[in-house]
Amino acid sequence: MSAVYRVDLEAFARNLVRVREAVAPATHMLVVKDDAYAHGLEVLVRRAWDEGVRWFGAFDVVTGSAVRAVVGPEARIFVWLLGGADDLAAGVAADLDLGIGDEALLDDLATLPPAPARVHLKIDTGLHRNGIRPERWNAALARTAGLVAEGRAVLEGIWSHISEASDADDDDARALFLAARDAARAAGLTPRYSHLAASAAGFARGEFREDLVRVGAFSYGIRPAGGPGEADLGIEPIAGLVACVVAVDAAGAHLDVGGLHGLPSALSGRFDVATPGGPRRVEAIGATSTAIAPWDDARVGDEVVVFGRGGLHSATDLAERIDTIGEEIALRVSPSLPREYVH
Length: 343
Ligand SMILES: *Cc1c(COP(=O)(O)O)cnc(C)c1O
Fold this sequence. Notes:
CATH architecture of the largest domain: Alpha-Beta Barrel
Number of domains: 2
Distance between the termini: 19 Å
Largest sheet: 8 strands, mixed
CATH class of the largest domain: Alpha Beta
Bound molecules: pyridoxal-5'-phosphate
């Protein structure tokens, strides 16, 4: 036996039920970027499809196409990192919903063979990551209306991404969003879907739910740092990092995971893990192994849950000890650690 990242698909299914209920009557778009938050894209997408998820947020065209290969033609797959004409063409070919946050992409769309692209136009509501600036919005709408008239595009949605860091900022962002949607309608466009919320606002703030809520973190049981607990949210971590004891000596019990597997060395001395002898302190995180305080009959081969499901602390618990967010810990779990799926 050696270390694995153990993913409980039943817990994932329960989270999906919970997310669906929390965002209703809006629809849950399951965000699966970063290999489904490092849980394994293919297996999680397949399970989500079986559980009734019909919208996937896949980030880029490569991921979107991978999702398409798993779920078949009926699913809606939204991507929002698009590099130019080739990417757009690949996205249209894979029948993806394209999040367009840059006017130059509208020009690129005009150069493609006329197969109608499903466009979701993004208004920048303050994050300045991408998105069309409010002062350019009307020009982008006119450009989009032209593409629609030429049969090159269907305006499926208007969307944005908000910080979810302060209610006041989010309220300002939402006001810009609603004005942008009104402007689209005034320009004769009829977007079917509005979406701007992710996990936090989707759960906490009904007026942000609109038609689709793009939920990643909470689907995997990753709670916000400094925010409500998993139990309050009704979600549970779906994965645990399970290590093995590979040596026991005077310095302690040594586990077969370390910094190279994704454990930040800054966490040395700062949390306890679940061992067969009860909670034990993590003493030193090295590159490929971690020393923990021993227990009486510790032996090689014993299983220790370092964090997450079955352990004492969630990814976000650890993140809070080093002033970061749960995703930072969860996404660092190395792809070299085998994923083990529990049904
Ligand atoms: C990552 C991401 C999400 C999901 O955010 P969570 O907080 O993980 O739910 C939603 N929308 C966009 C554009 C994203 O990049």
